Amino acid sequence: MPSNQLITIERHIADQEHMHSEASGKFSRLLRDLMLAVRVIQREVRRAGLSDIFGMAGGKENIHGEMVKKLDVLSNDTIIRAMRYGGHLCAMASEESFGLIPIPDDAEKGSYVLLFDPLDGSSNIEVNAPIGTIFSVLHRVTPDNGSEGTMRDLLQPGYRQVAAGYALYGSSTVLVYTSGDGVDVFTYDHTLGEFLLSARGLRIPKRGRYYSINEGNAVNWYPGTRRYMEHLKSNDKASGRPYSLRYIGTAVADIHRTLLHGGIFLYPSDRKSPNGKLRLMYEVNPLAMLIEQAGGTATDGRGRVLDVVPTDVHQRAPIICGSSDDVAEAMKFLAEDIEAIEAERIAK
Ligand code: AHM
Ligand code: MG
What is the pTM of this model? Predict the structure, then answer.
């Protein structure tokens, strides 16, 4: 692509779809509808503070709390409303909804499923820190005959994702997207109302200088995690240690920095949270696909996280991901955690 070419996300996705002869156009329409929802959410996110100033929460004491809750729910409703009559989906699931979100009876049922976290990092809304929307798209596995989707369609391992991405509502709104052919980045132009391609084929550095973990959980860490953290904080000029800590507490924002600058992001298994905190289907899997597509590694501390076979749409999974050299080094330390977990399980 010539460096000065202007290309919208819709155009980019349509071009990609045309490269596949069996393409029906439905996938492009799915992404187009999803992008509309993202545009609406980003508008509401940008207005959240103003709504507060203009007293939209009606002078209640916990104005921010009310607004925050509203944004979560509003983002969820926006995605569902944008997607359910599109004819491309047979089922959805969301962090904000219980179980399977059905496609209405009178709507056409399509060949894809969509899983999403409508507003990731929502505790950061009131402090004006970045938040985001994460999504994962899979083909249905039940017969594509116009029938409703089932849990079987949703409960697939992450390696089967056909597309994944996130929108990050930060100093600008960016959309980071993969359909299994590398990672592309789009930046939202408010004056045009369009996402414009800003980086194609993003590659994560092989090693970074940042680590990202909630250190407040240290008391619950297994010994391998503890030793790895001490290692990253010890002096070794040749390998760039000590690393610097960066932790925003919004997975999308922490992963975005990791994708751009390299390093490692961890929400590992610990004594209090054996499965970490992040949700497998609509947080860990799409973020892991992006990391892998950018040349990085994503594990759950035992193996490739995209290979985990899910049993529940809301299940949690540990995640250790980022630059391939950093993750490989971390895994050597974290092997000790697996032994400790096994030993504690047997002792019980
Ligand atoms: P949320 O989806 O309810 O916002 O929670 C998920 C968020 C992630 O974005 C982030 O990585 C993590 O929770 C931070 O958790 P903690 O506050 O325990 O560090
Ligand atoms: Mg989340």
Answer: 0.94
